[in-house]
Design goal:
The complex is a heterodimer of chains A (about 300) and B (about 270). Chain A is built from nine helices and 13 strands. With about 300 residues, chain A is of the alpha/beta class. In chain A, a hairpin with a 2-residue loop joins strand 8 (about 205-210) and strand 9 (about 215-220). In chain A, helix 2 packs across helix 3 (about 110-125) and helix 3 (about 110-125) packs across helix 4 (about 140-150). Classes of the chains: A alpha/beta (about 300), B mainly alpha (about 270).
Chain lengths: ~300, ~270
């Protein structure tokens, strides 16, 4: 559905046209039917990648295909829906007029147009009175819903959303999350960027992490978090002296609580407990969250 | 076929946007006020009242059309870029040429409606003052429309790559050059004939004037007020050839604007 290989993009800014590399050898693939989360800090290259995919930005080199077609070709956008970050629309139109305008641009007419508008508004819980008010009176949440509604009007196979949940209240985030999941159940591929990593973890099949213009991690949430190792926290009923602790096991500061750095250390500690009559009260495993990994990657890039 | 549909949808939206723009009403009201003021001018003037009303009203139509073409024209594309509405619009399956053409057709329709309304007021004034409202005045108004068609294309061309202020200045520059290029060429040749310059300077000035005359659209061709007001017939096929002339320039300017716009990055 999306194929990006060795993508490079340089901006030239200021009077001297000083080059700034925004994307450095970005490669990622999104398969049909996936919900694909794209995460990274501000200025990492998320929006740049998305704008290359939607044909809004040219690129220096690499290969980019959307629905099998280069984004430089208008046809690549026939089955593509896109909502930019903080969408802005013609504020002299009402929400419904705006959707009619965009609907006509994707080839919808008459009853089909009206029924698609109705469907999109229902999906986003936006079929309310305010949809017939001028857009200049809309809140951020209303604007975001209209923004997503215009993206999905034309029965797209691929929907690209740039920060669809930013600035929304918890209800709004839930509605957008549910809309993404419903669209995906209907067979639509979703590619979206987000700062809200808990949402990304909960709905994405796959995730790519971009830092300083480079993809630093890609895979399922489990693959990414597992690749960073799992820690085990063990609490025993009896204390174990520090010098008796097996290799890879450390004290947390409490004489009955221990941290095992990996699976082998956990097994060694359990063997020690069994053979020395120490009862295990509880054991938890702790994986690093996407946030932990992203923070670590940002720190690494800054060094 | 799909392209024409896209152009139509964007043109309709541009029309809707423009008619909700305050600047349009300000220019329109000013034009109506000045057209009505032409009645007073006709009474005060030592010239024939009919002549004063006709020439003043045609000038008002031309200048108000120019103001709309420049001030609304240059803001059309810039507004989309600065307001970031262009991001959503160009992510639809429409070409950037369709976008430019849609904007062009939309504003041209606004100018057409503006001129049509002023024409009605113009004819009402002529009828009320018994100033011989001839059908030939329509020819002059049509040529003002052709001139505005070129000016809007120029405004869109500049606004596709430069800021609002620069676009306004450039478009105004082209307008002035287009009206003065013929006179400039004649003056340079006259000065050369009269021996007011040495041979080298004369050749350089004449070449520069020829280049300006050739490159800038000859907008003076569309000003036939003097002919029409005095009831002098225009040369055969004058309107036809100048329509083709306008169409040619519009085609070239819009092609360059589309090409330039399609190379742009939208951040």
């Amino acid at each position: 559905m999306i194929q990006i290989e060795h993508l490079h993009k340089t901006y030239r800014t200021g009077f001297t046209m000083k080059p700034k590399k925004a994307l450095k050898d970005v490669t990622l693939h999104v398969e049909p039917g996936e919900v694909y989360g794209f995460i990274g800090p501000n200025g990492a290259g998320k929006s740049t990648t998305i704008k290359v995919l939607t044909g809004l930005l040219n690129f220096d080199s690499g290969k980019v295909l959307v629905n099998g077609i280069s984004p430089r070709d208008v046809k690549s956008r026939r089955f593509l829906g896109y909502t930019p970050e903080q969408p802005y629309f013609y504020d002299y139109l009402t929400g419904r007029e705006l959707l009619r305008f965009y609907g006509r641009l994707v080839g919808l007419e008459g009853k089909e147009l009206e029924s698609r508008i109705h469907w999109a508004l229902e999906l986003l819980h936006a079929d309310k009175d305010w949809i017939d008010r001028r857009l200049r009176s809309y809140s951020k949440g209303m604007m975001q819903r209209v923004g997503i509604a215009q993206a999905i009007l034309g029965k797209p196979k691929l929907v690209i959303l740039d920060e669809p949940m930013s600035g929304l209240d918890p209800m709004g985030r839930r509605d957008v999350r549910e809309a993404i999941q419903q669209l995906n159940r209907d067979g639509v591929t979703i590619f979206y960027s987000s700062h809200l990593l808990s949402d990304v973890e909960s709905i994405s099949h796959k995730v790519a992490m971009i830092v300083d213009g480079r993809i630093v991690r890609e895979g399922t949430v489990d693959e990414i978090t597992e690749s960073c190792g799992v820690e085990y926290h063990v609490r025993t009923r009896q204390a174990i002296l520090g010098e008796n602790l097996p290799q890879g096991v450390s004290l947390t500061g409490h004489p009955q609580e221990f941290v095992c750095s990996d699976d082998a250390a956990r097994d060694r500690l359990l063997s020690y407990c069994l053979s020395n009559g120490v009862s295990v009260e509880r054991m938890d495993h702790k994986r690093p969250s996407l946030e932990d990994i992203l923070t670590e990657e940002i720190a690494r890039a800054d060094v | 076929m799909q392209m024409f549909k896209h152009i139509g949808v964007i043109a309709l939206n541009t029309f809707r946007e423009s008619i909700r723009d305050k600047i349009l009403y300000n220019i329109g009201l000013l034009a109506v006020a000045l057209a009505l003021f032409s009645i007073v001018l006709g009474e005060w003037s030592v010239f024939d009242r009919s002549y004063v009303i006709k020439s003043t009203t045609l000038s008002v139509m031309s200048i108000s059309g120019l103001l709309i073409s420049i001030f609304v024209g240059i803001s059309l594309v810039q507004k989309e870029i600065k307001g970031r509405t262009v991001l959503t619009l160009l992510s639809k399956p429409i070409s950037r040429a369709s976008f430019i053409l849609g904007k062009y057709v939309g504003l041209l329709s606004v100018v057409a409606v503006h001129l049509a309304l002023l024409t009605c007021i113009f004819y009402a004034i002529l009828l009320l003052t018994g100033s011989n409202p001839t059908a030939s005045l329509i020819t002059a108004i049509y040529l003002i429309f052709c001139e505005m068609a070129v000016v809007i294309a120029v405004a869109l061309l500049f606004s596709s790559f430069s800021s609002t202020v620069l676009s306004a200045l450039f478009t105004l520059g082209v307008y002035l050059a287009g009206h003065l290029s013929n006179e400039l060429l004649e003056q340079v040749r006259f000065a050369a004939r009269m021996g007011e310059m040495d041979a080298t300077s004369s050749a350089i000035f004449e070449k520069a004037a020829v280049v300006i005359h050739a490159v800038f659209p000859g907008l003076y061709r569309f000003n036939v007020t003097t002919y029409v007001v005095h009831g002098v017939a225009l040369p055969d096929m004058y309107v036809f050839w100048n329509s083709i002339y306008a169409l040619g320039y519009v085609g070239v300017f819009l092609a360059i604007a589309s090409w330039w716009f399609s190379r742009r990055d939208f951040l």
